[in-house]
Write a structure and sequence with these properties.
It is built from 12 helices and 9 strands. By secondary structure, it is an alpha/beta fold. Helix 1 (3-16) packs across helix 2, helix 2 (22-34) packs across helix 4 (51-65) and helix 11 (232-241) packs parallel to helix 12 (260-270). The protein is globular and about 70 Å long. The relative contact order is 0.10. The model has no long low-confidence stretch (mean pLDDT 95). The chain binds glutamine.
Amino acid sequence: MKTRLLVKEGEYRLAKAFCMDAKIDAEELYCFLTGMDKVALFLRANEEVDPETEEKYMELIARRAERIPLQHITGTQEFMGNTFKVSPDVLIPRQDTETLVEEAARTIQKNPKEKVSFIQKLKGVAEWDVLDLCCGSGAIGISLAKICSDIKVTASDISSAAIAVASENASKLRAKVKFVEGDMFEPHAGKKFDMIVSNPPYIRTAMISILQEEVKEHEPLGALDGGRDGLDFYRVIVDKAADHLNPGGFLMLEIGHDQGEDLRKMLKDDGRYTPAEVIKDLPGKDRVVKCRLKKESDL
Ligand code: GLN
């Protein structure tokens, strides 16, 4: 069979199984199997496929048609221009989360701290001490470590399996990140940071059952379920982050598109933070909340 027809057949089977992006996934799986890129696939569309490749391709299509996420079949997801390993132990990094990383990186670059001398740098004194809380695959912390120079990134997660995936990602991508296992702030007792970033679980429990099958059946629920109103983790973060930020330190959280007002209010009621800014993602939805721990001059 010709490549073009085989991939078309793959697309048809995925569409019939109600996979959202049938065409894209059918092409991705062919590229994954053959090592071709999309351009080669286009240029070689009229070439004959050998029967062995054809059979292997249809096996991949059959797995995807069972609604196994594409990324669990290929084992990877692109995020901020890097390829991250993923597994069922970690949330697959979403494009939405790039908004948080871009905003955090901009904030670090726009607010240089007092100059750190070359000797201090050699001794490991970084300009920014950043914590990625609930790090999952490590996508946020690792991306920041790669984009920003002079930062020291610590990342933590309650799941040891997630920490294993994240550590592997950091070493593959040559990013210097310190990983610690533990529940929320528990492994950071007595530590203070200049910035805390987090994409905690924020889906309302009742909404889990209406998520796509790929998500609810294959991704870790512990990384998605934010409790009855979706805000359980934010309550802990808002309560505890103030004890783990230096004065003026930044708190930057990914939020669900309808949680901006809740977070703004929660931070205002707490009283220890500056008024929160709600930042939109590319499709124009509220996606990130950003504020600072008040410093003496703010009080
Ligand atoms: N944005 C993710 C989703 O829609 C949820 C991420 C989270 O709960 N932190 O599946």
